[in-house]
Amino acid sequence: MLRTATCGELNKSFVGKTETLTGWVDTRRDHGGLIFVDLRDRWGITQIVLNPQADPGMHKKAESLRSEFVIRVKGKVSQRPAGTVNARIPTGEIELQAEELEILNACLPMPFGLEENNVGEELRLEYRFLDLRRREMVENLTFRHRVLKLVHEYLDKQGFIEVETPYLTKSTPEGARDFLVPSRLNPGTFYALPQSPQLFKQILMISGYDRYYQIARCFRDEDLRKDRQPEHTQIDLEMSFIEEDDIMGVVEGMVAHIFKHARQIDLRLPLRRMSYQEAMEKYGSDKPDLRYGMELRDLTPVFEKSGFKIFDQTIEGGGQIRGICFTPPAGVEFSRKDFDDLTQWIKTYGPKGLAWFKVTGLDQVESPIQKFFDAARIKKMIQILGAQPGDILFLVADAFKVAAASLGALRCFLAEKYGKVPEGKFELLWVVDFPLFDWNQEEQRCDACHHPFTSPKPEDVPMLDKDPLKARARAYDLIINGTETGGGSIRIHDRAVQSKIFQLLNFTPQQAEAQFGFLLKALSYGAPPHGGLAIGVDRLITLLMNRDSIREVIAFPKTQKGTCLMTEAPSAATERQLKELNLDAKKMWLERPKT
Predict the structure, then answer these.
(1) Residue (of 407, 496, 492, 402) closest to 455 by Cα position
(2) Which of 489, 550, 545, 547 is nearest to 251 (CA)?
(3) Secondary element (H or E) of residue 50
(4) Exposed, middle or buried: residue 184 (CB in 10 Å: 0-12, 13-18, 19+)?
(5) 239 contact partners, CB below 8 Å, separation of at least 6
(6) What is the Cα–Cα distance from 423 to 483, expressed in whole angstroms?
(7) Model pLDDT, residue 588
């Protein structure tokens, strides 16, 4: 090794010893003779003292040092003089009196300072090799490592075996768009990068490996956002001969183990469970954030036959009037423009408008539509929403799903904008009893809510022939602070039921065989009852570290356009590469993106 210690290792016990350190020049300070260098590596910082009396030539060399030069320095560890101790760092009681200095590499002028907090994300991603040197990024990736180590330890003790599954596999419709990889050896055919190890882990259960896990890389060609990347990592696990409670119990234990040892937080187990229907009714979301109030309430009975045309038509058409109560922070007054802006904002979620009332008394409000309602209705609305003078009531009249989802989004928006989200608080729960299917209005068919391998509840199997949209799934999602962090289900292990699900999803027998023939075959050879779950590592680490974006906890993330600014991927292929893959080289070459 070029060093005998790291820059975060030395303390008073090393005083008098000669040590060699390597690292990057974090700062250099010239005190008119003495030169002080803060030497940094991922372990920490050590102060180096370069004295011209020790070696004039070495001191001259030190004068050329600049930020981010890579150096090797040898010297004796000494205790810092009284009054110069830096209690903020572990090495703050000592310094290294340099005797030898070697410049291992120079550094060009930096595009940004590592200590700067207002550097644009695009610049940071372009120079990711520099951005990763920042202390915050070191902490993020080190914390991620510790969490994954805890996962390995916990699942090993629970009897799981880690098995790797292929990256090059068959394209199967599982909910997202596949990344395709052309095969050179089999012209005209394509591999797909796996959206998840879903089918392989089911095959492993059928093969008798009754407790599998993997820290799996997954690929989905989706539109991106702050909590989604084209490639992500998940803690993937599957178990045989189990039911929902067994899987949720194992996962709860794993998550509690992570919180305890990574954040020193004790979770209360078992975690709360909430049905999908309750979550939608109270929070307008299947991933409710329980850290604050503002629960949705059904006000339909209050406004029946009120004479207000919009409300009456909505109720007569089978819709609902739902509302939330918002308490503005002290000193915040909503203007008419604020209400107009919120009305335009909420329309993106589907409703035609937003009604609002400022509560001024137990049965008194201010609103453009207050004249349409008598005091009894106003009082009842205030009571149901638990409002007090000074609160603001927001109402949406529409179909249940639209009213609930739009108010649920407004609830989160107001909480974040006006500081209603408690810092450092974690609320975890399971959402269960999801619908098995959604109705695809455009294509007039059923879509799987989770994926086509999710088992219906045993008591709902008859519904598959009568009314499949009423069938419930044996599915469960792990929600942390309003973020879907994990999800899974009990799988279908009966070939006849799986074939029925494919039929309801509009697969012909020939299509089902072409896409999933290997799974149907495997289900015919003694498939055990099984199920599993996957937790998004990137989302989990982001939540645990209270970061704003998953890009902060991924070493080399993509932008929201799916590009890597550092490597400039994706890039055009050469004509020779395309020809080897039996693709239309000339056409693709002419239509390639010009750079």
Answers:
(1) 492
(2) 489
(3) strand 44-50
(4) exposed
(5) 205, 210, 211, 212, 246, 247, 250, 530, 531, 532
(6) 15
(7) 65
Q: pLDDT value at position 595?
A: 53
What distance in Å separates the CA atoms of residue 24 and residue 34, rounded to the nearest whole number? 19
Question: 587 pLDDT band (50/70/90 cuts)?
Answer: confident
Which H or E element spans position 445?
strand 445-448
526 close to 475: Cβ distance less than 8 angstroms: no
CB-count exposure of residue 324 (10 Å: 0-12, 13-18, 19+) = buried
- Whether the CA torsion 282, 285, 291, 292 is positive or negative: it is negative
Determine the pLDDT at residue 594.
65
Angle between helices 495-504 and 509-523 (to 10 degrees): 160
Q: What are phi and psi for residue 133, nearest 5 degrees?
A: -80, -20
Closest CA to 377 of 298, 282, 326, 304: 304
List the alpha helices (DSSP H) in 284-335: 309-316
Provide the edge-to-edge strand list for the sheet that holds 161-162.
161-162, 211-219, 231-240, 530-536, 483-490, 475-480, 428-432, 272-275
Contact 452, 505 (CB under 8 A): yes
Prior bond to 329 cis, omega within 30?
no
Positive/negative CA dihedral, 568, 569, 570, 573: positive
Contacts of 230 (CB under 8 A, 6+ apart): 179, 219, 220, 221, 222, 224, 558, 562
Strands 445-448 and 437-440, sheet pairing:
antiparallel
State the Cα–Cα distance between residues 579 and 588, nearest whole angstrom.
10
pLDDT grade, residue 442 (50/70/90)?
confident
Please check whether residue 94 is in contact with residue 13, taking contact to mean a CB–CB distance below 8 angstroms.
Answer: no
Answer whether 267's CB lies under 8 Å from 227's CB.
no
CB 41 within 8 A of CB 22: yes
Beta strand 428-432 with 272-275 is parallel
List the structure tokens of 267.
């979770």
DSSP assignment of 366-417 equals E-TTGGGS-HHHHHHHHHHHT--TT-EEEEEEE-HHHHHHHHHHHHHHHHHH
Query: So what's the pLDDT on residue 131?
Result: 97
Closest CA to 93 of 71, 72, 78, 108: 78
What are 439's strand-pairing partners?
Answer: 446
pLDDT averaged over every residue in the chain: 94
Q: How far is CA 564 from CA 208, 333, 339, 568, in A?
A: 41, 44, 40, 5
What the block records as the tokens of 197 is 């190890």
pLDDT band at 585 (very low <50, low <70, confident <90, very high): low
Tens-digit pLDDT profile for residues 208-236: 999 999 999 999 998 877 778 999 999 99
pLDDT tens, position by position, 129-147: 999 999 999 999 999 999 9
Strand partners, 504: none
